[in-house]
Structures are given as C-alpha cells and as structure tokens.
Amino acid sequence: MINRKIIIAISGASGSIYAKLLLDALTFRQAQDNDLKVGVLMSDNAKIIWESELKNQDYNNYPFTFYDKNDFNAPFASGSAKYDTMVIIPCSMGTLGRISNGISNDLLTRTADVILKERRKLILVARETPLSLIHINNMKLVTEAGGIICPATPSFYSNPKTIEELAKTVVDRVLDLMDIENESFRWGE
User: Fold this and answer.
1) 174: Cβ–Cβ under 8 A, 6 or more apart, which residues?
2) SS3 per residue for the chain
3) Rounded to an integer, what distance in angstroms lies between the CA atom of residue 153 and that of residue 83?
4) 120-152 confidence digits (pLDDT tens)
5) How far apart are CA 83 and CA 121, in angstroms?
6) CA-to-CA dists, residue 2 to 76, 82, 84, 168, angstroms
7) Tens of pLDDT along 23-73?
8) For residues 52 and 30, what is the distance between their CA atoms, to the nearest angstrom?
9) Which of the residues 4, 89, 108, 122 has the least number of beta carbons within 10 Å of its own beta carbon?
C-alpha cells in the first residue's frame, strides 16, 4: 500500500552525487516496503552534469517514473494528486530564484508552486557558494512560504572516509526531513 507520494527533482547544479545517493536510498526503501510512489524530474542540464560528474547515465536505471520538464499532465502538476513531499537535489540558484518568485515555467517549478500552495513539504538542497544577497533573499522568500532550505553542506563528525560517505551525511539529513527512516550517524548515540 502506498503511504507516501514523493517528487524528486534534479536541477542543473553541481552535486549529482547527492541526487544519486537519494535515489539509491529511495530505491532501497521502496524495495523493502513498497510504500512509496516516487516521481522524478531532471532538467536537461542535470543530465549533462550527472554524466560529467559521475561518468555514467545511471539515472536511466532507477525504478521510478521520470517525467519530462514540459509534461504538465504529470499527476503532481495539480494539488489534487496529493503528493506530500518534493525534494530538489541539488537545487540551482536559478531554480531557487524562479520558485521564490512564483515563476512556473516548467514542470519542476510548477510542482514546487503546487507543493507550497498546498502547504506540503518542499525541501531545496541548495548547492552554491558563495551566496549573493539575491540568493539569500530568495532562500528567505521560500522559507517564509513554508519551504525548507537544506544546504548541501556535509558534516564531518561521523568521520566519513569516502566522498560517498561525506555526501551521504547530506542525504541522511534530507531523508530525516522527509520523515523517512534511515541508518545514519546520530550525534551522541
């Protein structure tokens, strides 16, 4: 029985490893419980960056339905489909800017708009440094509208040994924000 409906959007920012690790975790979770319905959106630039950073096209191998950026017939283009969570990972500053200003020019930004207007959970894994005042103000606007800004800032207190373990510290935090159980390092435990 499907208890959760989730949208994962991958925008054209550096940090494809974060998207890969999240899709891996959701694939594992879905195989265990089959309680998730996951839709995936990838921008054209996201595919290019994935291939450049990860040296593969493994985004084609996930068991989820992928939607075209212009497919406004996708179920989550409307609030009536009751998708409860959207994660944009990584989230480019251009995507953040369009969302914060209510510009719904493709399925990704339309879906973010729907999630915000329906008062559901929107998590933006922002990937940029340094930040301009424009970026900070856009983050403020999204936060005031109910979104969660989760910078792609890894933690080191778990003593990660590989790049994947380091990136997983961000993905574990995202899974926590999504209310999805995961085995991760917990401070003081």
Assistant:
1) 18, 22, 87, 89, 123, 125, 150
2) CCCEEEEEEECCCCCHHHHHHHHHHHHHHHHHHCCEEEEEEECHHHHHHHHHHHCCCHHHHCCCEEECCCCCCCHHHCHHHCCCEEEEEEECHHHHHHHHCCCCCCHHHHHHHHHHHCCCEEEEEECCCCCCHHHHHHHHHHHHCCCEECCCCCCCCCCCCCHHHHHHHHHHHHHHHCCCCCCCCCCCC
3) 27
4) 999 999 999 999 999 999 999 999 999 999 999
5) 9
6) 15, 12, 12, 26
7) 999 999 888 877 899 999 999 999 999 999 999 999 999 999 999 999 999
8) 28
9) 4
Domain regions of the chain by residue span:
4-177
Cα separations in angstroms, 17 against 4, 78, 127: 24, 29, 12
Among 72, 22, 69, CA closest to 46: 69
Q: Quick check: 95 and 127 in contact, CB under 8 A?
A: no
d(CA 28, CA 44): 26
Residue found by looking up tokens 């339905």 in the block? 65
Name the residue type at position 98.
R
Length of the chain as a residue count:
189
